[in-house]
Amino acid sequence: MDAIVLAIQQLFPRIYHACHVEHRRGRSTPWRLSDHHAAILAHLDAEHGTTARELCRHLRTGAPAMSASIAQLEEKGLVHRAPRRGRSPARGITLTDAGRAAVDGSSVLDSARLRTLLGRLSPRQRTAVVAGMRLLAEAALSPSKQESRP
Length: 150
Prior knowledge:
Helix 3 (about 50-60) packs across helix 4 (about 65-75). This protein has helices at about 1-20, 35-40, 50-60, 65-75, 95-105, 110-120, 125-140, and strands spanning about 80, 95. The longest helix has 19 residues, at about 125-140. Strands 1-2 form a two-stranded antiparallel sheet. Mean pLDDT is about 85; it is low at about 145-150. With about 150 residues, it is mainly alpha-helical. It has two domains: about 15-110, Arc Repressor Mutant, subunit A; about 110-145, no CATH class.
């Protein structure tokens, strides 16, 4: 396990530095996103709904602040909240097309640079890259798999 940890610690910065762009002031982008709003969008996708509770837990934000942020993002057309089902207050939150564009335009990883790197790989290798990153991201979001933090 130590060798895998070391490999990720060495490889991730190489990818980050190859694709990193200067930090953009969120308020200067067409979407006028705060860092907090950009972080919320980065944790959503267009297919699998995430609940506000999950976002609160992962981003360590209180429910009232998260609710207000989601409402603001929905008002801007960047997220969609599914209708409530029955008595459950949980609603799946997904990115809209405009939300995907906002993530693309506000990410510290430049899309063109990422495309260049991915273009050097075969389709099979690209699929493997995404699968591996997805597994690591899912482990990061799973509270049952997280170790307690100091």
